[in-house]
Specification:
The chain has helices at 2-8, 24-32, 37-64, 68-72, 74-79, 87-108, 110-127, 134-154, 161-180, 195-221, 226-240, 244-259, 267-292, 296-304, 309-324, 326-339, 351-359, 368-397. The protein is mainly α and 402 residues long.
């Protein structure tokens, strides 16, 4: 009887989806681009437009563009009016950076290695340009060789990581001493700094100094002390409610009036301070968002371990909140790097400002597109390097994964 019941029961077999068959290139084109007469017309029209744009762009870049404007003004675009006889200081600074990058590549590998490879590729491309001076080409080849040599050296110096980090922290004051002089070398005023050198310095100073200030402002806004909390709230809301160009004008024009006679701050330093204060307010809000995303259980776990408020914030809460807002912070850093072009409005000749000065020269009239395309390419390369480093860091820290 039991056997009869078993035989009469219907056994349900789960249905499986039929295997997907490859439709090939022609099938994909027919399905996505030529599926109806309307899609066919749109495909033909937009395909023709894209074809004409690409063909004309390639023809202009390789056959019609007057690239001599870049070759004739390459030094101005890179370092502005920095004296030619003192350019060895700039190259010493780049050589020290190359040394640290090579050592960091050998020690940490990963993202640092990819960025170092990208920087080496830039060195190689610039060194291969036909209009580059022989002295510049020699310095670039020395930097390339130094990166390769220090990479193999760094693989054997993994126990000296802290010294490499100290070297990176000391790189900024050493660079400023090299560029300005500060009694060690002949003084070169910041009014002679310009081009990409000035763009890079302003961006690095704003990024490096705005980060700790933004962290303090974010923590201060969550403080239980009314004076600290409302001061941070007032600062953040005031700065975020004012355009960056207004802050730059205040720093350049009104700050000397507030300081009075006898106190003079360099124009470049004023721009750096303005960018730092502006960036810190936005970073503070990004970091505050990260702090609010931390579950209450993390606070309770830290308190259960007996940690005081300082240790709880520094070792438990803050690292998790910073990890959560890496994309927002790097986006802010990229924005600051691009916004450095605004200093041209207040009289400083950064990369874009130098480009404008060049095209205003009667000798180079009609070369606006070439100059602006070169400036855009420089910003594109370095912004993409920052974006790539951000994605690698997010992947290494598991941002967005559970």
């Amino acid at each position: 009887m039991a056997n009869d019941e078993l035989t009469t029961k219907q056994v349900s077999i789960p249905e499986t989806a039929p295997p997907k068959t490859s439709i090939g290139v022609l099938g994909w084109l027919k399905e996505n681009l030529f599926s109806s007469w309307i899609n066919t017309i749109l495909t033909v029209v937009f395909g023709t437009i894209v074809y004409l744009i690409v063909v004309n762009t390639i023809e202009w870049i390789f056959f019609k563009a007057e690239w001599y404007v870049i070759s004739a003004n390459f030094k101005l675009l890179m370092v502005g009016q920095y004296p030619v006889e003192e350019l060895f200081r700039v190259w010493i600074a780049f050589t020290l950076i190359s040394l640290l990058m090579g050592l960091s590549w050998g020690i940490w590998k990963g993202t640092m290695g990819h960025l170092t490879i990208a920087m080496t590729a830039i060195y190689i491309i610039v060194a291969s340009l036909p209009f580059v001076l022989i002295e510049t080409r020699i310095w670039l080849l020395v930097n390339i060789a130094l990166i390769i040599a220090t990479y193999f050296l760094g693989k054997r110096l993994t126990k000296f990581k802290k010294y490499i980090l100290i070297g990176w922290f000391l790189m900024f004051p050493v660079t400023m001493i090299l560029l300005s002089g500060f009694g060690v070398f002949d003084r070169v005023g910041t009014n002679l700094w310009g081009g990409f050198l000035l763009t890079l310095l302003i961006a690095i100073v704003a990024i490096v100094f705005s980060f700790p200030l933004g962290v303090l402002l974010a923590l201060g806004r969550r403080s239980k002390l009314p004076v600290v909390k409302w001061f941070c709230v007032a600062y953040i809301e005031l700065i975020r409610g004012v355009p960056l160009i207004t802050i730059l004008f205040v720093a350049q024009l009104m700050l000397p009036m507030f300081l009075g006679e006898g106190v003079n701050i360099d124009n470049v330093i004023r721009a750096m301070v303005g960018f730092t204060l502006f960036s810190a307010a936005y970073l503070a809000e990004n970091i505050r968002g990260g702090l609010q995303s931390i579950p209450r259980g993390q606070f309770e776990a830290a308190e259960a371990l007996g940690l005081n408020a300082t240790f709880k914030t520094v070792f438990i809460i803050l690292p998790q909140s910073l990890r959560a807002v890496i994309p927002a912070m790097v986006g802010q850093f990229i924005g600051i790097f691009k916004d450095t072009s605004l200093v041209a409005i207040v009289g400083l000749t950064d990369l874009l400002g130098m480009g404008k000065n060049i095209i205003s020269n009667p000798e180079f009239l009609g070369t606006q597109m070439e100059v602006f395309l070169f400036v855009a390419l420089v910003f594109l390369v370095f912004c993409n390097m920052m974006s790539y480093a951000s994605r690698r860091l997010e992947g290494a820290l598991g941002v967005g994964t559970r």
